[in-house]
Amino acid sequence: MPPYNARSGENRRKAHRALLIGVDRYEHLGRLPGVPRNLELMKEALTAEGSGVFDPDEVRVLLDPRGRHTVGEALSKAAEEAEGLLVVYFVGHGQVDTYGGNFHLMVAGSKVTRDKSHPFSNALAWHKDVMHWLWESEAEHVVVILDCCYAGNALKELDLNPEKRFALFAAIREGAEIPVPRTAAGTRFTREIHRVLTEEPTEGGPLRGGDVLLAHLDTRVREALAGLKAYDGQDWIPVEFHQGDDVVLALGRGEDAVPPVEREPEPHSVRVSDPEHDPEHDPEVSLSAFLRRFWDRLWRRRGVRKVLVPLLALALLGTTGVIVRNLLPADGAGSCAPPMELRVLTDPDLRATVQKAADAYLERDSRACRQIGISVYEAKATDAVAAFQGSKAWQSPDGECPVSGECFRPQRDLGAQPDIWIPAADSTWRRAQDTSAAATGNGKVTEGSVVSFDRLGPLAYTPMVLAVPDGLSLPPALQTGSPLGALVSALGASEQKAFVLRPDPENTDGALLATTALYPPTGIAQPSELEQGMEGQLTPMPGTSAELMCALAASPQNTLEDRAAVLIPEQTMAQFNLRPGDKGRRSCAKDTLSGRTAWYPSDVPMLDLPFVRVTWKGAERDAERRKQAIKDFHRWLTKDGSAQRVFTEDGFRGVTRGGDPATPDEHSLLTESANTRAVHSDKLPQNGPPATSAVLTDTLRRYRQALGPGRVLYLLDTSTSMVDKRVFDGSGRAKDLVSRSMNSLGREDEYGVWSIAPVSRKAHADLVPFGRNDRAAAQRKVGAAKPVPDVNAHVATGLRDALAELRAGPSEADPPRLLVLVTDDEDSAGIKGAGLASLVQEAKRTPRVRVVVVSLQGGGCTSGALNRQLTAATGGRCLDPSVDLAKELQAEVAKTGTGDAE
After folding, report:
1. What is the tens place of the pLDDT at every residue in 231-246?
2. Phi, psi dihedral angles at 734 (to 5 degrees)
3. How far apart are CA 135 and CA 90, in angstroms?
4. What is the DSSP string of 223-287?
5. Given its phi and psi angles, is residue 154 left (phi above 0), alpha (psi -120 to 50 degrees) or beta?
6. Are 96 and 41 in contact (CB under 8 A)?
7. What pTM did the predictor assign?
């Protein structure tokens, strides 16, 4: 297919939009002085005379937006108006969380918080915010250019409609930071984009007339940046991705170049950098101009045109209307009162299907003026429950909540008060009604609720399954009627080296219910051992079942996807079982992704998607009309065959007249050939018992405790050989590695640093006492540590003492534990035979302590028996100079610590 060209014959008269966003003045982060120049360069490149693919009035520039909603409105507007090409450019700070995921774009008022559940305040979530707005756009081709740190992480968090033409050009690869420019000349990445788009069309590109495609731009920018280094010292490599045809970003100026289109400037375009200035609010703009703009925008919406054309024809034939010349575009328009908006909050695992159902419901409304609008949005399951339990904060945030934003504000963090709530499980809305101290999980009784619920019934069903790759095997007798612990134990007992993964239980209802069955007393291992084992396979843990499967599909480890049995809803498994070309197959699913068979644990309740009407005190306006609209929507969802088909085509089980799960019919994804042997479609799997609020709250408590605060103990080799080999002092050496990795430790973590080259006969000496520490003070103490002359390290004794110290503490606590040994291997080489076997057995005892060995000796992870056996036995890791020691050690400590590893 030819590349998409916004200035070709069939595209030149369509509406094209470019939104250029830049932030240089941050309130809580460092300034970026080159941003204003970047915006000038990008606008110039996109609108250059003769080569630009946009007219100047098609480009909006947004400089220093303070809030995420300002950007959201601008992005939503551009996405709605664009019919042809939509380009979105961002330059500013990009951030990821401690685990290297959850990519956010930071605006002027953004802030990094210490809350692991909400690490960023007033920032744009790439997946939840930006991709959602872009997904809604009807533009024929979308291009996103990101000039910020961690820009490559955006590629990891894509979940695209396979039919959408989409391209991403990121300044740097995943997990990497860009050196901050100190001048106002603009960033190197954007300067190179400007050079290629404005200079190369005159030199003759790969196509006729020198047109510059995105792929060509990527090649030229990569060549220009070759040899430059990212912040971590590794190569600076941009990332390019496109789905569908390539796209022309600059027109050639040769003989065959496409001439620019003569177009009348559009009066609504914003031509300035001030985000507060918009002609809509300019008192000097006349009323007629405002009305013309309003109808011009309305006319661009395809659905509106379908309604207006026949109406206007009738009006002209009957000569009963009055057409105001200044009001309508040349080809006419009409007006409607704003529809009533219903807000639907749902579980992240359900968002895509609920959105399809809402769209289908609105499509059936054939009236000239739409009466109802529906907005669907998602929230972490635990956030939704907490917000409803403390519902007063949704209307008026707690006065004790600091302005800094380091606490949970439902209106800001979730969105507007919902009219409808569709969680995945019945237990979730019941938990939201329980405001006792035990249910809230914070020891406080929530008083003064302003919300009430009316459960109208289930919309669809899907059981939680252990989706086992077809290459693995389990006894057939266990497929139904067996508890989850028995299934996991059977996998672990085999020689298949299989392991279990599940999404973040704070994010979705299904993952929380599955986690309850995983944990003792009915589970198979301590929570910290389970969670650290999962983190050892995949970090960070994805938030939804679809994201988990996409992560397996994208994994660089070829065997990871084939060995992972995943706890996900049956409908998600069914979608990923589909073959290429099958309707409903997820776009991220690779051909090599293993098919999976469902095993139905008897102790995990089925997800029943309850439809809950939500009413609020003080929101009585149009209450009866709203109530009736909600009931009509629910009636259609449950009684209309086309509505139920939306759910069954996505792999859910329908609802019988009696409200029970229905057997899959011919329209169900479960009856597709790829799934007929993978699921039990002839009989319903045995359902698990109801989960109580107390049990679920306790599971969340144990999960959070298993993830931190953690206990970390460093054993630092301070012996003579460390100095002789020059691996003790200096950048990238022992003390520096320990100090830098402490950035992954927080105020609530317990940690310390011991010397294992004792001055006396003691086994160790405290460099940093074990316990809660001030991080900066601890780092200074490590920096001041001195080697001990003429003394060998007591490695074995130090390891035994450190394991005992980490395992000490209250028996009911189960925090993650990490032991870090930093050594040159000279004094551990003699630990062999029975001494080594005894030490490895000691390390394997419970409670589990993960061991990471930092070998400063080249090849220390292959030649050192102690290093290999100790880390393998504890699920830890051995690091030697063959990897980036500073980066990798900090990442390992981050799995246990709760600090902001920035």
Report:
1. 766 788 899 988 888 8
2. -50, -60
3. 17
4. HHHTT-B-TTSSB---EEEEESS-BEEE---STTPPPPP--PPPTT---SS-TT--GGG-TTS-H
5. alpha
6. no
7. 0.58
